[in-house]
Amino acid sequence: MKINVGILGCGNHAKTHADVIHKSSYANLKACADIDLERANVFARKYDCDHSYASLKEMRSEHELDLLLIVAVPAVHPQLISEAIEQGIKAIICEKPLALNEQQARDIHALATENDVLVVEGLMYRSHPQIRRTKELLESGAIGDVQYIHGQFTDYNKLNPKNWRSNRSQGGGSMTAKGCYLVDACNYFSGSRAKAAFCMESINADLNVEVGETATIVYENGVTAQFETNHRSVWREELRVCGTNGTIVIPHAIVTKTQKRFIEIQRNGAYETRPMETERIEFEACNSYELQLINVYNHIKKGVELNLPITDSVINYMVTDALMKSVETGKLEPVLWDQ
Fold it and tell me: Which partner for 33 in 53, 256, 287, 294 could form a disulfide, CB atoms 3.0-4.6 Å apart?
């Protein structure tokens, strides 16, 4: 049986989700809403959605929704999640970032738990088979013991002042736009809890918005993760996990809709005398947003394990808060697990 889905926020990125829903055999785009009613109306006509509204309350009053997709600017995500739960919606995918700090994430988690509501952060990359395969390889010891993780996710070297990513009041900045993926990837692949974090930040003076983060996360098991995210250089979305016996490279780790992907395992290789051995694992083209929706659908209908439980999201914001505090203090800051 198909689930009825509503979309809240009808900007450019909502198209990605509408396309996935239309191609599916298990979901129906029942309604959409946006604070700009005309934008909602245009979206509804374009994506064959029968009903459009100016608010979530109006949409919910006329339709039973099995799932709500929140595709608004980050600053209002916590408020909209709270409103959706108040309106009786039981399953929510909220585009990243779920929240802007740890307390907001904890409040969302508590509210969802109290009301028995499923809330999933839209870090869709987690659902791609290359990420899950990498996790399996690491757990099987394919490159020995993990020691270092390196990540890079960059773009937008020419900032658009009208884009939320360039607007601090809307939750913009490279950390909320891209760094959230890298924090999650480092936590996911480290195999341990984060112990401390350090970060240096760059600001665009004209827009007064953060455009670059260079970060280090230290884990309790000795793993060190470093990443760079910025809005001032060429597009890159690479992850490297380095172990005692090899390295796993994911050249295109984050955004995947239509392209084939691969990961490469690199072993040995030293100076000029020992050639590096490489093994390439290829993946057919698939849409990470589609896989994310399938995972949530299967969790709702069959109870399958979520690719990204909200507890992981809360941990990500614990680490991000330590990174952001480090920006202010200029010191390595602890990740506070006892709060």
Answer: 53
